Amino acid sequence: MQKIETHRLILRNFSEADSQGLLEYLGNPRVSCFLDERTSTLEEAALKVQKRSKDDSYVAVCLKDSDYLIGELFYLKEEPDTYSIGWNFNAQFEGLGYANESVKAFLKYLFMQLGARRLYSYVEDDNYRSQKLCDRLGMRKEGYFIEFISFTKYEDGTPKYENTFQYALLKKEWLKKQSS
């Protein structure tokens, strides 16, 4: 992926120097969908960084002044032109507008560089920050799935199913918003 610079951030491929930053937000995932990504050691983080560095569908979000990793954006392409998108950020950098700033640039990249026609994102019903972010980005709430997916289990071993919203945005909707 080509490096993208915003006012305060750099979006780029992962590099070896990102292991500590990745460990900080994957060491204790706050959202259930990232529980299977939990990372306990710097060595585990380095292996994940190495894998992500070879995969353009993972985008490192770094502070412009220090190039320090504070989160990631990612996509999964569904042929021919639909992309499922998501993000995960270090809690220490919440509330500063970094997610909004980086995802706006990510949407532009997906629509204008990769030719996306439609983007969508799944957000658990208790993940209020991501819901607000989707709203700010102009994504529309398309659905609400009851007991949609399980990422964890109750103490008795039975699966705990998550209620999940689906948000989406079409390129033509995004373009209209850009021109207004």
Automatic annotation (TrEMBL):
PROSITE patterns according to UniProt: GNAT
State the source organism's domain of life. Answer: Bacteria
Domain (N-acetyltransferase): residue spans on this chain: 9-161
Name by which UniProt lists this protein: RimJ/RimL family protein N-acetyltransferase
